[in-house]
Amino acid sequence: MFKKAHTLLFVLILLLTAALAGCSGSNQVDGEGDSKKTIKFMHLWPAGSSKQQNLIVSDIIKQYEAEHKDVKIEVEVLENEQYKNKIKVLSSSNELPDVGFTWAAGYMTPFVKGKLFAELDDVLNDGLKDSFVSGTTEAYAFEGKTYGLPLELNIAPIYYNKEIFEKYNLEVPQTYSEFQNVVKTLASEGVAPIALGNKDRWTGSLWYMYLADRIGGAEVLNKAIDRTGSFEDPALVSAAEEIQNLVNENAFNKGFNGVSNDEGKSEFLNGKAAMYLMGTWELPNFTTNEDIPKEFRDNVGYFKFPTVDGGKGDIDSWVGGPGVGLFVAENSEVKAESKEFVKFFVEKWGEQSVEKAGVLPATKVDTEKVELPQLYIDVLNDLNNASNLTLFADVQMSASVAETHLNLIQSLYGNEVKPKDFAKQHEDALKAEEGN
Amino acid sequence: MNKVMSDKKVIALYITPALFLILALIYVPIVQTGYYGLMKWNGIGEMEFIGLKNYSQLINDPLFWKSALHSFLLALFSALSLIGYLFISIILAGKIKGADLLRKIYLIPMLLASVAIAQLWLKIYHPTNGIINSMLLAIGVDNTPAWLAEPNIALYAIIVPIIWQYAGFYILIYYAALKNIPESLIEAARIDGASPFQIALKIKLPLIMNVIKVTIVLAVVGSLKYFDLIYVMTGGGPNGASEVMASYMYQKAFKGFDFGYASAIGFFLLIICLIVTYLIRKLTETKNDIY
Q1: pLDDT of residue B289
Q2: Where is this protein found (chain B) (predicted)?
Q3: What is the pTM (predicted TM-score) of this model?
Q4: What is the CATH number of domain A29-152+323-364?
Q5: Which residue of B has its CA nearest to A409?
Q6: Rounded Cα–Cα distance for residues B233 and B243 (Å)
C-alpha cells in the first residue's frame, strides 16, 4: 500500500519537473496538421504607442497571408528598448526571428560581421532598387552588400508652437542670433523655450549635432567619427560650448536630464514649451493623430535649424537619415519566403505609411496620388531639397563609443564636463576603438 | 514512514528533481558566466579567449568603482533602515489600536510591481508638476531641485523609494518573529518591574536576533544586486550618477555590446556578494546560530 503511494508521489514529482523544464523548451505543435510555412516576424510598433504603424503592419500581414495561402506569419511586438534587448539576447544564441527590424550603420555592423543577417541584394535587384530614395539603402550596406531594407527616412526639424510665438511677437528665427533672442525672450517670460527629454540622451545629441553642422559644416562630425578628422576640431569644441550657453540661458525645460523623451514631448504637446527638435516620425502627432486636440495640431509649424554667423553650415543640411529597416536572418529555414515577404512589405509600406500613418517612408512618395496634410508636404519638399543628411551620431558610432558619446552628452548638458574635455574624451574613445 | 525516509536511495530519489533544477538553472549559468568573462565577445559571432584581461580592465575602471560605491551606499542605507523597521514592528506588535490596519498599509508597496513603483515616484519627483516640487513652490521655495537630474541628488532620490518599497517586507518578518515570543516571558518581566523599553531591548531583541541577522544579509545582498527601479527611473543617469553595479553590467552588455566584460562584472558581483555575506555572518556570529 505504502509503496504504491510512494511511487505515485515520485512519478508526480518527475512530471512536475518535466513540466517546469518544458517551459523553456520549444513547443512546436503543429495544431492544424497542415504544411504551412511559418515566418517569425518581430517588430517594434505596439498598438499602444505607435497605433498607426501597428495597424498598417497588421494590415500588410493580412494581405500577404491572403495572397500566400501556404505561409503563416507569426508576429511578436515589443516596444523600442525592449526590442533592442530581445534582439541582443536572441542573437547571442543565434535564434533571430526570420524577419525583424534593425537600425543602420554602426548598430548593424556587429550583426553583419557575426553573419546573422542575410544579404538582400537579390531582393533589391528584383525591381525594388529604383523605388528607394537615393542614399537610404547605402546606410544598410556593408562592404558593398546590402543587409537591410529601410522603411523610414527621417529628418529632424524644430517644431514650434505658433500661438506662443504670436503671443510674444516672435518671428521664426533664420539665424542663430535670432534664435538666441527667441530663447531669451521666452525664458524671461517664464515659458520653457525648448522641450527636451535628455534622460534618453540621443535627444540632446540632436542639438549638439546641428550646432556642429552649422558651425563646422556637414563633414566635421562625420570625419571625426570615421577617423579622417579629429573630435578636437575647434568647431566641435565650440558646438559643445554653445550647448552649455543654451543650458545657462535656461533654454530647456527644467530637469531635462532626468526627463524621458516622452515626458519632454508632453511639455511641448501641453503648450508649456515653445519648441521641440525631433525626427519626422513625430509628424502624425501634428497632423493626423486624433488623440491630440485639433487646435494644437493646427498650431504646430516647423523651421530649419538656423545658420550660425560665420559658420560653414548650410541651412538645407539636415540631421536625419534612414530609420529602421527590415532584415532577414541568415540561418532562417524559410529564407526564400522571408525575402519575398520583406519585398512585399516594403512595397506596401511605401503606399500605406504615407496615407495612413503620415510618416515618411524610405521609398519615393507620389504626392499626386493622395490627399496629404500641408505640414507633411512641406517636410517632403525640404527633404527633396536637402543638401546633406547626417545620420544620427549614436547610430554612426560603434556601440561602445556611442555609449561614451551619449553619457558625455548628458554631462555636457549637466555642466559636469568642460567643452574641451568633452571633445578630448570623445577623441580618446574613438582612438581606443581604432586600436581594436 | 521512518523506514522509508531513512533509506538513502529514497532520499537521493526525492532530492534529484530539485537538485537537477537548481543545477540547470543556477549553477550552470554561473559557470557559463565565469567562462564568458574570460572572453572578448560582443554577444554575436566569434568569441576570443583573452584570459583575465576583462578583470584587469575592471579593476582599473573608474566607472565600475563609482557604481560599486553607489551599490554600497544603497546597502548601507538599506541596513540602517532596518533599525526603523524594527522600531515600527515593536510598536505594532505591542498591543496598540489599529495595528492591523497599519500593517496592511505598510504592506501595500510590496504588492506593487517595481515598475509601477518607479512610475509612481517618477510622477512624485517630476521637476515641474511633481508633488514635491509643487509643494515646495507653494511654500515659497523658488529654486526647486530637479531631483532625478541633479548628479549629486539623483542617487539619494532613488534610495528613498527603494527603502519604501521594502518596508512592508521587513516589517512583516519582524512582526511575525515578535509575535512568536511567548507571552509568558513578557509577563514575567513585567511582574519583575521591567519597563517597556527594557523589555524591548533585553528580551525581545535577543530573542529575534537570528531573524535580524537574516534580514541584514537579505538587505545588504539585495542592495548590492539591485537593478529594477534604477533602470526605469534614471537608467543610471545623469552620466552614471545613479549607476549601480547591476545597471552598469546591463549597460555594458546590452548598450555597449560587450558581453565578455559584462560577464566579468557579473562574476565579480557574485564574488562580492559571497564575501559580504560571509563577513556579515562572521561579524554577527553567536553560539546558537540557526544557519
Answers
A1: 54
A2: Cell membrane
A3: 0.85
A4: 3.40.190.10
A5: B239
A6: 11
